[in-house]
Amino acid sequence: MDQFVIDNMENVAWLQKGLVVLLSIAFFWKLIRYMWSFLKTQKDPVRVLVTGTAGQIGYAIVPMIARGVMLGLDQSVILHLLDVEPAAEALNGVKMELIDAAFPLLKGVVATTDVVEACKDVNIAVMVGGFPRKEGMERKDVMSKNVSIYKAQAAALEQHAAKDCKVLVVANPANTNALILKEFAPSIPEKNITCLTRLDHNRALGQISERLNVQVSDVKNVIIWGNHSSTQYPDVNHATVTTSSGGKRVRELVADDHWLNTDFIATVQQRGAAIIKARKLSSALSAASAACDHIRDWVLGTPKGTWVSMGVYSDGSYGIQPGLIYSFPVTCEKGQWSIVQGLKIDEFSRKKMDATANELMEEKSLAYSCLK
């Protein structure tokens, strides 16, 4: 046989062998990727603590968490429910309802009045329980009760929670309760302790949506500065609305600076009181939803170009005293939040931001006096 033909046949054989090898590699690579993606979907359950679970907000939030609203539809959870001894029977009733609801993502429920058992190995803590201000009570009396509660719960989290535990304080005074918790849980990173101002943020979005008759999902980048109290400052100076012709500034579309600087701010500040007056109960549903929003964005990230409001440990940004838990605009990525920098602050905003910071400094002093 001609040598040229033999050489060609050998080359073809080598090519065939090479092709088989390449196809085999491609097949096994696809198989490995498929198996890896399958394994990745089998996430370990996240342990989520909710304190004050027999109360209104606790009762509203636990089914949301169990349904995947907080951490996503691919993340299973084990719920840790904590309340005080007098609420033990009601707490057990909540546990029974969670079991009866047969949530596919719910892999276990720990219902207890023991703070140590409740905090054991938790990855996320939603601190809803607190002592509410009652008629005739002085501000210092309420602060003293909450300092005692948060000192004890902080100590339990410090000793028994997962080392990377993320904490969200909901109970009022939320900013200062979070500060006390940080004081007595020093091994929890300061960036892992936050308080809820997302409820106020969502209220501001809702007011703009109603005013402009647009979808609330089209409104973004409002800001809640400061304290979760009546001194908070809802700021729309950087907020936009998505329209058919692109993003438009809220101030431009509303075209009523007087309303934005007066009634809008007052409505957001006083919304909680208005709801109590209307339904004779606090705003449990919206608070629970906002807490889920807060944790979801913190863990899974904020959409590109969008920020949200979180009460976080001040690093001195925007001239706010370091060491306060103060609400800033933040973006979140890979489980970490970052304060949005470089926003222009006008004179009106500066006064509002400083006023709510001053209130937080007063609360901090009051809380520390209770500790003594």
UniProtKB/TrEMBL annotation:
Pfam families reported in the protein's UniProt record: Ldh_1_C, Ldh_1_N
GO molecular function: L-malate dehydrogenase (NAD+) activity
Transmembrane domains' residue ranges: 12-32
Domain (Lactate/malate dehydrogenase C-terminal): residue spans on this chain: 197-365
GO biological process: malate metabolic process; tricarboxylic acid cycle
Keyword NAD appears in the UniProt entry: yes
Catalysed conversion reaction: (S)-malate + NAD(+) = oxaloacetate + NADH + H(+)
Keywords: Membrane, NAD, Oxidoreductase, Transmembrane, Transmembrane helix, Tricarboxylic acid cycle
CDD domains: MDH_cytoplasmic_cytosolic
The Lactate/malate dehydrogenase N-terminal domain, residue ranges: 46-193
Keyword Transmembrane helix carried by entry: yes
EC number(s) on file: 1.1.1.37
Family: Belongs to the LDH/MDH superfamily. MDH type 2 family.
The protein, known as: Malate dehydrogenase
Organism per entry: Carya illinoinensis (Pecan)
